[in-house]
Amino acid sequence: MTSIINAINRRDGFFALACLIVLISTYEPFRYLLFFSHDRDYYSHILIIPVVCSFLIYLKRKPIFMDQSYSVRQGIPLILVGIVVYFLGKNLEIRINDNDYASIIALSAVMFINGAFILFYGLQAFKAALLPLLFLIFMIPVPTYLMDRIIHFLQVGSTECANLLFLATGLPFLREGFVFHLSSQSIEVAKQCSGIRSGLALFITALLAGYLFLTTWWKKIILVICVIPIAMFKNGIRIVTLTLLGTYVDPRILGSSLHREGGIPFFILALLLLAPILYFLRKSEKKLDPVSSTE
Could you point out which of 57, 182, 275, 294 has its C-alpha 20 to 30 Å from the C-alpha of 239? Predict the structure, then answer.
């Protein structure tokens, strides 16, 4: 019994050491990205991703750690690839922007941690913990090229939703692309108004909810897909609400903290819109349980 406990403690100690190595090697690029980069608002969620991953593994700890073994042949190659990617990023540091540099370093960290998990706990444990470990992908900053296109996509969708909501109000306005001209002022749906930050948070929330409450893979996909129109609609409501408040209540609202940082009430609204979808998907699974148990 003592030898088993010592083996488990040694295994955990080795993995903790691997995580410490990753923390030290990625500290500087992440520190700059999260506190000094102009893209920092897009990645405020990064700090909670390891906590969420650890919590998910803790929830499933019995099936994950039921069968543990060292898997040198499978773990070492992934660790080595992670190290190669890390030094590749270091070599490219002065030739790429800070966001893309952090993306490469974070990718190497995720590969290293997954390789270390396989090495110290084995393939069976890795397969059982696959989804929580893949959740670490959200630590990787989205490359600039892809991020620009995601923002543009959300910007277009949010503008279309805002246009429909303005039509529903019956107020006279003129639209030119991303700009709405009202009687007393003009409002532009800029890139900063795309809702990318809350959209990422909503996407991560949907993935978590699907993992925790749904068992059918295609229903999990439906839940995640529903995030896209909900995020756009929520952002359209925010744009119209702030515009109407700025036009008919107080013009200073459009330059206030409510405009810049007041997204929490609208994020809650998005969660309320997502909740019924999750409820009906989960309810449909419960109805199918007796059928599946007889097969």
Answer: 275
